């Protein structure tokens, strides 16, 4: 019996699977070259968000889950601040140099606790964005 086209495994697909398996065995994320003891994706997946207004990860809206997956796949420093009252801080590995010694404790925490030194400046801006659903543009910080 001959194999049909649908049954033939594409070489690049097989290679991607092998790369993922190798990354798992080495304890590294296949989407990041950052050598950290615990990558951002590993860390965020272990946080109990049920104690926040976000609730359990499995119940998050698809838009939030997709945004976080996209964020984690990006090597450029990005963060998401989720929740209208808790302002939960989620970031990728590219953000690690910005955080310095605040990582890993910053992941999944309220922004006001992560950045208390600037909360008086950014807190009102965030509240304005949430209330008006409009972005802000700051020229002088």
Give your account of this protein's structure.
- With 141 residues, this protein is mostly helical.
- It is built from six helices and two strands, in the order H-H-H-E-E-H-H-H.
- The protein has a two-stranded antiparallel sheet with strand order 1-2.
- The chain is globular and about 35 Å long.
- Mean pLDDT is 79; it is low at 1-11 and 22-37.
Task: Characterize this entry briefly.
The protein is mostly helical and 141 residues long.
Descriptive keywords:
40% helix, disordered N terminus, mainly alpha, 141 residues, 2 strands, two-stranded antiparallel ribbon, single chain
Question: What order do the helices and strands come in, and which of them pair?
Answer:
Layout: H1 11-26, H2 40-46, H3 62-73, E1 79-82, E2 88-91, H4 96-99, H5 111-114, H6 119-132
Antiparallel strand pairs: 1-2
From the N-terminal CA to the C-terminal CA, the straight-line distance is 70 Å
Gyration radius (Cα, Å) is 19 Å
Tell me the strand percentage band: 5-15%
Strand ordering within the main sheet: 1-2
What letter string, H or E per element, gives the SSE order?
HHHEEHHH
SSE-based structural type: mainly alpha
Provide the helix percentage.
40-55%
